[in-house]
Amino acid sequence: MSTEVRVPTLGESVTEATVATWFKQPGDAVAVDEMLCELETDKVTVEVPSPVAGTLSEIVAAEGETVGVDALLAQIAEGAAAPAPKAETPKAAAAAPATARTDVENAPSANKLMAENNLSDVTGTGKDGRVMKEDVLNAIKAPAPAAPRAPAPAGSGAREERVKMTRLRQTIAKRLKDSQNTAAMLTTYNEVDMTEVMALRNEYKDLFFKKHGVKLGFMSFFTKACVHALNEVPEVNAEIDGTNVVYKKYVNMGIAAGTPTGLVVPVINDADQMSFATIEKSIAAMGAKARDGKLSMAEMQGGTFTISNGGVYGSLMSSPILNPPQSGILGMHKIQDRPMAINGQVVIRPMMYLALSYDHRIVDGKGAVTFLVRVKEALEDPRRLLMDL
C-alpha cells in the first residue's frame, strides 16, 4: 500500500514554499513522524514528517522546487516491504532537460501583453508553467534587474562562492525595500541615562529570578516604557489602511531577533496587559524558538510596534527600518560610559542612544519626539511607570 506525502498547511496567507532539503532518499526506510524533508516559506522553515512507517519509494518534488499547499511531495510504501528500486534522485531530475514546458500554451492575453511590451522571458505561475496575464503585469511593474556584474578576473573563481538566497532572505530584502518605498520614514534620536534602571535591576535580579524563574533583563523595562509612551501618543501604535488610519487599543510588541538564517520579529501579544515577569518569560520563549527556527507564522503576525536591540551586537547608533504596516520602531543601542554634565558637575554615566523611526504620513514630529522623551523619562525614573506618569 502506498501513502502520499503532501505539503502541509503553511500558515495564514502563505500559499507556496520551496523544497529546501530531503533528509531521505528513495529506498530509505522511514519511521512514523521521522523527518522526510524541510520546506522554506517566506518566514519560517517547515519540517515534513512521515505519516506512516515504511520505505520512501518516490520523491516527486525535488530540492529547489516551488510547491503549493497540499502538493504531492513523495510516496511511501507502507510496511516492512523490500526497498523499492531507487527512483531518479531530485538532483538528477533537475539536471534533465527541461522540455516539459516547451509545448505549454500561454494565455492569449499574456502573449498580447508580452508582444506589446517587448517581453520574452516571463516566469509563468499557471498550470505547467503557463504564463498568465497577471504574470506579465507583474513583470512590467517589477523594477528592471540590475545589470550583471563584470566577469571576475581570471583565477579568482576559487575565492568566490555564489549561493542562492533563501526564501526568508528574499522576503527580508523585499519587505525592507517596500518599507522604504512606501512609508515616509523619518528617524528622531535621543539618549537615556541607564543609571536608575541598572541599579533597580541589580538590586532585585536575584529575588526576581528566585520568585519568577526568569532573569530580569532590560527588555521588560523598555517594553513597559514603550507601552507607557504609546498610550500618550497613539498614532505611533497605528497603521494606514488605504485612506483610513487604524488606531490599535492594544499593544502587540514585536521583538526583532537575529537568527542564523536572518532577521525575524516574533510578537508578544497584549504586552500592555503583562507584568515584568510575563514579558521576560515571553521574550525568552520567543527568542529560543527563533534561534531554533521553530517560530510559527502566527507568532510573527499582528505586531503593532517593534523594538530592535542592536546594542547586543555592539551598535552605538543606527536608524532602524519600519516593519510594515507598523508606524514606529524603537532602536536600542550599546550602553556606554560617557562623561555627562549633571548639576554643573562632570560625572560618568552609563548612556544609551535611542532611535525612533516613524511613518511621517501619520506621525508628526511633535508626536515622535514626545514618544521618545516619554520613553527616556520612564527609564531614567522607573517609578514613573508604577505611577503612570
Helix count equals 9
Q: Note the beta-strand portion.
A: 25-35%
Measured as a percent range, the helix fraction is 25-40%
User: Stretches where pLDDT falls below 50 for ≥5 residues?
Assistant: 81-102
CATH architecture of the largest domain: 2-Layer Sandwich
Q: Whole-Å distance between the termini?
A: 69 Å
Instruction: Give Rg in angstroms.
Output: 26 Å
SSE run? EEEEEEEEHHHHEHHEEEEEEHEEEEHH
Assign an overall shape: globular
CATH names the topology of the largest domain as: Chloramphenicol Acetyltransferase
Q: What is the class of the largest domain in the CATH system?
A: Alpha Beta
Largest sheet: 7 strands, mixed
